[in-house]
Amino acid sequence: MAYACDICSKGKQYGHNVPFSLKKTNKVWKPNLQRQRISIGSNRIQVKICTACIRTLAKYQREAAAKVGAVAEQAEVKAAA
Fold first, then answer.
1. Looking at the whole model, is its pTM more than 0.85?
2. Cα of 47 vs its chain's centroid, Å
C-alpha cells in the first residue's frame, strides 16, 4: 500500500456513497499524509506521516523537553544548597 503512514500504517479505506435512492457508488477515504523530515539519533530522514502522528510526535517532544527542564531545575536547586 503506497498511500500509507510510515509510522502507524494508516492507509486508504474503501466504502460506498449511499444516497436516498440506495444506488451505491465507490468511495475512498484517504489519511492526511504529509512529508516531514524527522531526526532519529543523528540521522534525518524524510517520511510520509499522517497528521495524527505529527501531533503525537510533537506531544512526546514537549514531554521530553519538560523532563529535561525539570532535571535541570533540580540540579540548580541542589547546587545552590
1. no
2. 11
Burial of 57 (0-12, 13-18, 19+ CB in 10 A): middle
- Residue 6 buriedness (CB in 10 A; 0-12 / 13-18 / 19+): middle
SS3 of residue 26 by DSSP? strand
Phi, psi torsion values for 80, nearest 5 degrees: -75, -25
| 19, amino acid identity | P
The CATH architecture assigned to 13-80 reads Roll (2.30)
Q: How does pLDDT run across 21-77, given as a tens digit for each residue? A: 999 999 999 999 999 998 888 899 999 999 999 999 999 989 988 988 888 778 777
